[in-house]
Amino acid sequence: MMIAGAIAVCVVLAVLAFLLPRLSRHPERGTQRTLGLGSRAGSKAPGFLGRIFSKPFRSSSRAVSRSGSAGRRTRGRMPF
């Protein structure tokens, strides 16, 4: 379920960044903040479990950042 949610958010942010590059930054930051909270909460588990529980949130955060920047970069390369 977490994977499907992360993929859906990435697709929405990439489309939003392509269509409205300036307006896509606020939803991207909100998503980053939410995933950061999940990562911090997961990392409070002791030892090895803390790394395991926080990893999906870290990788999802990285994917959200990449999809937003890719949409804006693609928009910048368009000829119109």
H-E string: HHH
Query: What is the CA–CA distance across the termini?
Result: 38 Å
Shape: elongated
Strand residue content: under 5%
Unreliable segments (pLDDT under 50, ≥5 consecutive)? none
Approximate helicity band? over 70%
* Global structural class: mainly alpha
For the biggest sheet, the summary is: none
Q: Count of helices?
A: 3
The rounded Rg comes to 14 Å
Count of extended strands? 0
Give the rounded overall mean pLDDT. 92
Q: What do you see in this structure?
A:
The chain has helices spanning 2-19, 25-42, 48-77. It is mainly α and 80 residues long. Helix 1 packs parallel to helix 3 (48-77). It is elongated. The N and C termini lie far apart (38 Å). The relative contact order is 0.21. The model has no long low-confidence stretch (mean pLDDT 92).
Kindly list the characteristics that best describe this protein:
80 residues, mainly alpha, 82% helix, elongated
Short description:
The protein is 82% helix and 0% strand. The protein has 80 residues and is mainly α.
Task: Give the topology.
Blueprint: H1 2-19, H2 25-42, H3 48-77
Helix pairs in contact: 1-3, 2-3
